[in-house]
Amino acid sequence: MAVREAEPVASLSEVKEAGLDREDLLQIYRNMVLTRGIEERGHILYRQGKIPGSFYTGRGNEASAVGVATAMGTDDVGTPLHRDMGVHVTRGVEPWRVLAQYMGRRDGPTKGKDGNVHMADARLGLIAMVSHLPAMLPVAVGCALAFRIKEEPRVAVGWFGEGASARGDTHEAMTFAGTRRLSVVFVCDNNQWAYSTPTHLEYATEHVADRAVAYGFEGVVVDGTDVLAVYREAKRAIEKARAGGGPTLLECQTLRMEGHAVHDDAFYVPKELFEEWAKRDPLERFRLWLQEHANMTTEEDEEISAGVKKLLNDALQRAEESPLPDPSELLEGVYATPEDLDTPHHK
Ligand SMILES: Cc1ncc(C[n+]2csc(CCOP(=O)(O)OP(=O)(O)O)c2C)c(N)n1
Ligand SMILES: [Mg+2]
Q1: Is residue 126 part of a domain?
Q2: Would the CB of 80 count as within 6 Å of ligand 1?
Q3: Which ranges constitute the DSSP H helices of the chain?
Q4: Which of 78, 112, 145, 311 has the highest count of CB atoms within 10 angstroms of its CB?
Q5: 194 CB under 6 A from ligand 1?
Q6: Range of 82's domain?
Q7: Ligand 1 pocket, 59 CB below 6 A?
Q8: Is 127 part of a structural domain of the chain?
Q9: Nearest 5°: phi and psi at 282?
Q10: In whole angstroms, how far apart are CA 227 and each of 39, 79, 159, 207, 278?
Q11: Is the beta carbon of 164 within 6 A of some atom in ligand 1?
């Protein structure tokens, strides 16, 4: 077999071995609840006509996004995509800024200059995506190359969809990272669909991660609805990269639980598939795991839900108060000035 299939995390002692204590577990859970809550609020805003353009969510991908981001170090960088709200949340974005971004307001991370999920806060080590999906993989690889040149023990995490794996930039990024053994982890959000295209028309191998061996590094397949398994594999891959062991391709298997975006009702996805994966809802799975293995009480659970609800109510109000950007600011912050760049060439 070309790839390793990750084991589920069964007990609290295994979790402790992986470096998480009980507080960390509850924080992970909270981040997942918050991630879903932000996107649910987004749906409401969309129905109220307050979101210009379409609206994208990562329902079903919360464990995968939060699990990987939890494994990243503070100084590591990442290029999360449209299914990875959990990465922004885990790295500490303020939810009101996300809601402001959804509505094109001035206080969104792009100051109203880009729509919905095309955003990231560079101060949190995240780089905003462009629309051409695997186009962010060469950017992540470029970051890892910079870390190599500057001799910094940092890791870059690059996300891509399984559909994006069919494009050339994926191949270029993996070839370059493999040959130079760069400190990069490629995370494939395999949600089984690229818009309406199913996996058998996207790649001819059993797994996307099977390809890793051809690029000269390790491929791992993990259940993307199991946040602890994702965390453990991401941690291994990130620390391996940091120690000079080269890249890993980590494939997180999920199902996209909504349409490609809100304008798409996903009529082409078999109903039974949704029913089957609804039983593996990542939040529900982790909630039950916490009750069973970490003695999470009903009060703790309710406290987390109530805290998130309050946070989002306040966030929504603050976001609605944020103004639309003034047209005179249109070109500000779009292009870097030479003074903004600290490369020798620009000094
Ligand atoms: C070059 C290019 N072609 C098409 C699109 C429109 N588009 C955005 S996401 C997407 C599907 C990508 O599928 P996948 O990589 O599996 O990611 P998913 O949306 O399933 O997370 C498409 C066709 C785009 N953004 N860029
Ligand atoms: Mg997909």
Answers
A1: yes
A2: no
A3: 12-17, 22-47, 62-71, 85-91, 95-102, 136-149, 168-179, 212-215, 227-242, 271-278, 282-293, 298-321
A4: 78
A5: yes
A6: 4-321
A7: no
A8: yes
A9: -60, -35
A10: 18, 19, 17, 20, 16
A11: yes
Atom from ligand 1 closest to the CA of residue 135: 1
Q: What is the domain count for the chain?
A: 1
Please name the residue whose Cα sits nearest to atom 5 of ligand 1.
132
Q: Is-contact 138 127, C-beta < 8 A?
A: no
Instruction: Assess whether the C-beta atom of 195 lies below 6 angstroms from ligand 1.
Output: yes
Q: Which long-range contacts (CB under 8 A, 24 or more apart) does 119-124 make?
A: 119/88, 120/79, 120/80, 120/88, 121/88, 121/91, 121/93, 121/97, 124/88, 124/91, 124/92, 124/93
Cα 146 to Cα 154: distance, rounded to the nearest angstrom:
10
pTM more than 0.85: yes
Ligand 2: distance of its center to the CA of 210 in Å?
17
List the residue whose alpha carbon is closest to atom 21 of ligand 1: 161
CA distances from 40 to 10, 119, 198, 318 (A): 30, 18, 26, 17
87 in any annotated domain: yes
Which pair of tokens denotes residue 297?
């009480």
| Neighbouring-strand partners of residue 281 | none
Distance 195 CA to ligand 1 centre (A): 7
Ligand 1 pocket member 95 (CB < 6 A): no
Which residue's CA is minimally distant from atom 2 of ligand 1?
132
Report the CATH number that the domain containing residue 107 is assigned in CATH: 3.40.50.970
State whether the beta carbon of 193 lies less than 6 angstroms from ligand 1.
Answer: yes
pLDDT for the residue numbered 35: 98
Q: Mean pLDDT by 10-residue block, N- to C-terminus, for the chain (347 residues)?
A: 84 90 97 98 97 94 98 98 98 97 95 87 94 91 98 98 97 98 98 98 97 98 98 98 98 98 96 98 98 97 98 98 94 80 62
